[in-house]
Amino acid sequence: MAETDVNYRFIEGDPNVSPILLLHGTGGSEDDLLPIGRFLSADSPLLAIRGRIQEEGMNRYFKHTPSGGFDLADLEYETTWLFDTLNELCQKFNIDYQRFIVVGYSNGANVAARALLTRADTFHTGIFFHPMALSTVNSEQDLSDVKVWMSHGSNDPIVSADNFETLEDYLKGQHAQVDIFKHDQSHNLNEAELTSAKEWLAASGRLGQWNKE
User: Fold this and answer.
1) Which pLDDT tens digit goes with each residue over 143-171?
2) Residue 45 to residues 13, 34, 100, 160, 209, Cα–Cα distance (Å)
3) 75 with 48: CB under 8 angstroms?
4) C-alpha–C-alpha distance, residues 189 and 199, integer Å
5) How does DSSP classify residue 174?
6) Between the CA of residue 11 and those of 37, 38, 186, what are the distances in Å?
7) Whether the Cβ atoms of residue 46 and residue 10 lie closer than 8 Å to each other
8) N or C: which end of the chain has fewer CB within 10 A?
C-alpha cells in the first residue's frame, strides 16, 4: 500500500477500547463520519478510509454498471483492496484488526454488510446506517459470533423495506445477532437512531476486550 494511494484519517484513542472503522456514504470522504465515531465511543481509536472509486465526482467504494446496477466484480475487487488496506494500516498503527467495530453509512454500510456475508476475514461487530442487500448471497458462513445493529427509514427512496428485510434475513440466516432500528424518515441520519446505535454499542460487550473464539 502506497500512502499516496490511500486517503484516510486515523485518530488515536485508548488502546484498551475497541477501534472503530468508519466507511462513508456516496459522495462522502474520510472526514464525514469522524464526529459520529466519536459520539458512539468517546475513547475509541478511529480509522476512516475513503473509497477510491469516483462516479460523477462522488467518492464510492465500488462501481455501478453502465446500466445502473451494481458491478459485483468491481465490488469484490474493491472490497479486497479495502481490507488489504485496513490490515496494513492496522500494522502501522498497532491496532488489533479482530476488535474493529465497523460503522458504515449507505454505500459504506453496503460494502461492510456484503463483506460480512461473503468474506472470512472481516469483523465481528457492525453498525450499519441504511444498508441494503446488493445481490443474492449463496455463501454459508457462520456468523454466530457477529453482532450487528442496522437502521432503516420507512420513507427511504433508495432502500426499500423488502430489500432491507432481505439483508436482515441473510445475516440472521448465517446466525448473526441482528438488532434493528426503524424510523419514519428517509435515507437521512437522525438523533434518535444515533442514540440508539450508541446505546446498543455500549450494551454489546464489544467496546473492551472480549473473547473472539
Assistant:
1) 999 999 999 999 999 999 999 999 999 99
2) 4, 10, 10, 34, 14
3) no
4) 16
5) T
6) 10, 10, 31
7) yes
8) C
pLDDT digits (tens, 9 = 90+) for 77-129: 999 999 999 999 999 999 988 899 999 999 999 999 999 999 888 899 999 99
Pairwise CA distance, residues 29 & 54, whole Å: 11
User: Rounded to the nearest 5 degrees, what angle is found at the Cα of 61, between the Cα atoms of 30 and 24?
Assistant: 35
Q: Which of 44, 66, 48 is nearest to 7 (CA)?
A: 48
In terms of Cα–Cα distance, which of 29, 33, 45 is closest to 89? 45
Through-space distance between the first and last CA atoms of the chain, rounded to whole angstroms: 30
Grid look-up 476488535 returns: 99
DSSP summary character for residue 68: S
The CA distance from 199 to 207, in Å, is 12
Find the radius of gyration of the CA atoms of the chain: 16
116-127 residues labelled b (16+ CB within 10 A) or e (exposed): bbbeeebbbbbb
- CB-based burial label for 10 (10 Å; 0-12, 13-18, 19+): middle
Run of H or E residues at 197: helix 191-203
Asked if residue 92 lies in contact with residue 98, where contact means CB atoms within 8 angstroms, the answer is no
Q: Which residues form the catalytic set? A: 106, 156, 187
- Any idea which residue has 423495506 for its cell? 161
Report angle CA 49, 149, 201 to the nearest 5 degrees.
Answer: 80
